[in-house]
Design goal:
The protein contains 18 helices and six strands. The protein folds into two domains: 94 residues, Serine Threonine Protein Phosphatase 5, Tetratricopeptide repeat, CATH 1.25.40; 252 residues, 3-Layer(aba) Sandwich (Rossmann fold). Strands 1, 2, 3, 4, 5 and 6 form a six-stranded mixed beta sheet that branches. By secondary structure, it is α/β, with parallel strands linked by helices. The longest helix is centred in the N-terminal third of the chain and has 24 residues. The two termini are 29 Å apart.
């Protein structure tokens, strides 16, 4: 049965709610609620009355008081314990205790399907990744890549050669799928894409996604990956694509194994990504179990248009443009309601009314060739070769470009 787009869109938007209200109240109402909750708790102390007091304090912006009130309820079973953990996490989030916020949100999501909390967790993850990237760059001279376990792997956005706007985001989407597939192996510890995005922001690289074999070892060292997968997508005459990837060793500063190359068409790109993943497992010395192989073989979507919309979302998210990313992920879900990765990412980049978007200066500033070379190659001996600065103007143009054969579905994001 085919559902009309309006029904699918309603389901998408409804999935973003589902939990207790976490927004602040107007000061007058908030102070009144705190006074009433405190009087009720004083008159008849109980775990429920204590919970309501902590919730009221949080909604009044009294975050430190709320955490003190809720702390003893955190180990309580059932709804009281769940809600206490959630409100404690939200208060910790506003106070900047990202570790506690991450733990609390994760506990809540383990028991509740809550798109609003998933969005908050996504924002916390990005802020943690930003902090980790800044710390890594600040302490780069003391980083010892040889201490990184060989099973740690990162995947950088693949560079897309040429100026074809219909495939300009493909390198981001392919890298995202490779991260998911490589994560299927218990023998590898794959760095989350959010951490790589954050580092490229700090290095003023998000506007180009340019990580090549010369710079990959440094990127791997900074994100905590002993090995880094990087590559190029090149459009060739006749509508064909060549996707080439290499694995770099962050400790040795050398390439590992042989180049992994797939020659394909845009229509067959999802099949080619699977072939790339299996070849990379071989280059990384990984033997998959039958169950792991079966998991890798599963395609995230059957529709090329959905994957291209998803790729645009991944790139917009890497830029820090979460509103655009949300719209593209929603479009991917509209095309293929079974595209679970797109639905999950759509929720994770939503921003609630009482949150500030996590947009870094590097995400909005134009990227110049000099900035890229200086960031990745402090030594004047380094060279990135040919380079085309796309900047924000091209981002806007390419994210609005229509893909031939796709259906354009407008999605209004309030």
């Amino acid at each position: 049965m085919h559902l009309p787009p309006s029904v699918i869109l309603c389901a998408i938007l409804c999935a973003c709610g589902g939990g207790p209200p976490l927004s602040r109240l107007a000061p007058d109402n908030a102070n009144r609620d705190v006074d009433q909750a405190r009087q009720a708790y004083t008159a008849q102390p109980s775990p429920w009355a204590q919970l309501k007091l902590g919730e009221a304090e949080y909604r009044a912006g009294q975050d430190t008081a709320a955490r003190t009130t809720l702390r003893s309820l955190a180990g309580t079973s059932g709804d009281i314990g769940d809600r206490a953990n959630l409100y404690d996490a939200a208060a910790a989030d506003r106070l900047g205790d990202l570790t506690a916020a991450h733990q609390g949100y994760t506990r809540w999501l383990a028991r509740h399907d809550d798109g609003g909390v998933r969005a908050r967790l996504g924002d916390v993850d990005r802020r943690q990744a930003d902090a980790a990237a800044r710390a890594a760059i600040a302490s780069e001279r003391s980083l010892d890549a040889a201490s990184l376990p060989e099973h740690t792997v990162g995947v950088a956005p693949l560079q897309v050669a040429g100026g074809d706007s219909t495939i300009s985001s493909l390198g981001y989407g392919l890298a995202d799928l490779l991260i998911t597939d490589l994560s299927r192996s218990a023998q590898l510890q794959v760095v989350d894409r959010t951490r790589t995005d954050a580092l490229l922001h700090e290095l003023a690289l998000a506007g180009t996604g340019r990580v090549d074999s010369a710079t990959a070892p440094r990127v791997g060292r900074l994100i905590g990956a002993r090995r880094l997968v990087n590559g190029v997508v090149d459009a060739t005459p006749g509508g064909r694509l060549t996707v080439s990837t290499r694995v770099a060793d962050a400790a040795r500063g050398t390439l590992v194994g042989q180049p992994v190359t797939e020659r394909t068409s845009l229509d067959d790109i999802l099949d080619s990504e699977k072939a790339l993943a299996f070849s990379l497992f071989t280059e990384l010395g990984v033997t998959l179990t039958p169950a792991e192989r079966a998991a890798v073989e599963q395609r995230p979507t059957r529709y090329l248009a959905a994957f291209l919309a998803y790729s645009n979302g991944v790139r917009a998210e890497a830029y820090g443009d979460y509103r655009t990313a949300h719209a593209y992920y929603a479009r991917a879900v509209m095309i293929d309601p079974g595209f679970s990765a797109a639905a999950s990412r759509m929720q994770s980049v939503s921003v609630s009314s009482d949150q500030q978007p996590n947009v870094t200066a590097a995400a909005t500033a134009p990227v110049t060739p000099g900035a890229v070379i200086d960031a990745l190659n402090p030594s004047p001996a380094g060279s990135l070769g040919s380079f085309r600065d796309r900047g924000d103007a091209t981002l806007r143009a390419t994210t609005e470009a229509k893909v031939p054969g796709s259906v354009t579905i407008p999605v209004a994001i309030p």
